Amino acid sequence: MINDNFVQLPRGSFLMGSDDPLAREREKPLHEVHIAYDIAMCKFPVTVEEYMLFAQATGAEVPEEKHEHLGFDVPVRRVRFHDAKAYCEWKSQREGKTFRLPTEAEWEYACRAGSTGNYCFGNDETLLGDHAWYKENSEGVTHNVGMKKPNAWGLYDMHGNVWEWCLDWYSETYAHTPTDGTAYNVPNEKGRVLRGGSWNGSAENSRCSSRINLGSGGRNYFVGFRVVMEL
Questions:
Q1: Does the pTM of the predicted model rise above 0.90?
Q2: Is 202 among the domain residues?
Q3: Regarding beta strands 223-224 and 163-169, do their DSSP bridges make them parallel or antiparallel, or are they unpaired?
Q4: Is the residue at 1 inside a domain?
Q5: Is 119 helix (H, G, I), strand (E, B) or coil?
Q6: Residue spans of beta strands (DSSP E) within the chain
Q7: How far apart are CA 182 and CA 34, in angstroms?
Q8: 184-216 pLDDT, tens digit each
Q9: What is d(CA 199, CA 20) in angstroms, rounded to the nearest whole number?
Q10: Angle 16-185-204 (CA atoms, 0-180°, nearest 5)?
Q11: For the chain, how many structural domains are there in total?
Q12: Are 44 and 7 in contact (CB under 8 A)?
């Protein structure tokens, strides 16, 4: 049974990356990826409230918040990759199901929700404010999850609010990455992949294909995560 906060992703294929002349080299080449297994993705990034339950149960460090007035329904931030993985392991043990970070391919597949444009709603950048908190409308802070429009599959905050950790090690291009939805597992000094853009990021950084990297031990006020559940 799937929790109400999770959406089962349909199996299928999609074109990952971008062939737009303005796209970064790290978003190329455009290539087909096939998701042939069942997973469900959380509708929202993990919130401060959810992370607090984990911290209280395990003694894990609670990330210091820059804006304490933001409350408990904002995405948790300043979470290292290993902290996010530890949260998934705790949640798996607690609920008797397998939770983990999404692979980069799973993340983009879920973000697009069938769209082949720059965003889940197409290419009209003027509509981004309806779907995302980013530097043009965030007023310099994160916001409660689920306040903007979801994508076609019912997922919120896939654009903006916080960058989200993926399982993959970062690769400079997609030339040698998997095409079956699994993670790129070649360790390197570039660290792990972040997806989605953030409250202080540009519209360009919020595109479906946009990707950056951060060392696994990195913690920033624009970085959070969401989880998937294996079915």
A1: yes
A2: yes
A3: parallel
A4: no
A5: strand
A6: 6-8, 12-16, 31-35, 39-42, 99-100, 163-169, 192-195, 211-214, 223-224, 228-230
A7: 10
A8: 999 999 999 999 999 999 999 999 999 999 998
A9: 24
A10: 35
A11: 1
A12: no
